[in-house]
Amino acid sequence: MSASSHQARKKVLLLEGIHPVAKENFAQSGYEVELLSTSLGEDELISKLKDFDIVGIRSKTKLTSKVLLENPHLVGIGCFCIGTDQVDTHQAKLLGIPVFNSPYSNTRSVAELVLAEIVALSRHLGDVNRKAHEGTWLKSAKGNFEVRGKVLGIVGYGHIGSQVSVLAEAFGLRVQYFDVVKKLPLGNARACDSLQELLSTSDFVTLHVPDTPETRNMMTAKELGQMKKASYLLNLSRGKVVDIEALAEKLEAGHIHGAAVDVYPKEPKSNKESFESRLQNIENVILTPHIGGSTEEAQENIGNEVSASVMSLIREGSTYGSVNFPIVAQAYRENSHRLINVHKNVPGVLGDINSIVSKHGVNILGQYLATDPDIGYLVMDMAEGQPAKIIDEVNELDACLRTRISH
Ligand code: NAI
What is the domain partition of the chain in residue ranges? Predict the structure, then answer.
């Protein structure tokens, strides 16, 4: 059997109208690509995938355990979106299939919207805009403020929070933040020692924390009450972080002067479903339909990032950016064969593989192993020779899940 028969084939199925840049990237690198605008149901998906090695999906296509078990030959899965709940990532791992996503491609889009909304809240833009459309002229300076010199408190100084920090300073806001992890302040930003300190000293509070048991209901009546009188709250993180009823009451009582909310505890599943919230029709409240990260640029970034991750998996076995695999990311060494192996994480596998290689008199040039409780992921560079026999023997090991070569 030739070495090339152990290499991943390059047939890619892209579903759900993934940004065309992904198709272009794959095609330019010699992949054969089919792009469909819709998702496929389980049965259709099972039979369609038989002919492909890589599948790219967004949030609607369900890669269930059944779909994966019927298509164990898949080499990689690209989720061209943020979430990966639609894939049985554990099953994929046990079959040796890395799953990639793109969690940070829309960071800048969210940060820009936050800045726009800080100004919009400060100037009651939502209300005056609606009134003007209805024919009412609401010209007044009262209660409208510049944002220059005001204090912005950022809760969660991660990818989005830190981008907001940089943009906000350019606007003349004074930035402070609170994070459970010690973070380097950017520009002139200042770290607060506690959430309470941040809440009681900020004119605007913007939330950029993940959805975790600790952040759920992070802002209840108590924390909202700790905010400065006449301050503003923005939540473009996750819906369950804020107690909506408590926020509505604080807004109606005038303690909080306005809010911008993009995410809700319960959101419509599609644009066809109607949307209801306790926050509707409260003065100076901007409600958006979870569009913080929804821009053309973010979609293009996602297309570029996920296609690059998948191609680097195929080319050099890199699992960088994978959500279900131990990470190995090593540049390919010229003039060598690269063996890529997934095995059950049981004692002795590495020794067995090394014995096979040495039995064939092949020199190991580099070996990179990462493990998690279920699997070991090995990328091994060998001196040039005849790797096909080695791969066949490695594949015969009881603990081996799959082995291929990339070069
Ligand atoms: P990230 O993981 O880069 O940053 C989150 C930060 O929050 C980290 O620095 C973490 O240490 C900190 N953190 C965690 N628990 C905390 C706590 N209890 N108190 C204070 N800080 C805490 O995440 P990223 O990319 O900045 O995203 C932030 C949020 O924005 C996530 O919930 C994400 O789902 C959401 N998001 C919303 C979008 C939208 O369309 N509205 C689009 C993209 C992300």
Answer: 1-106+296-325, 107-287, 333-407
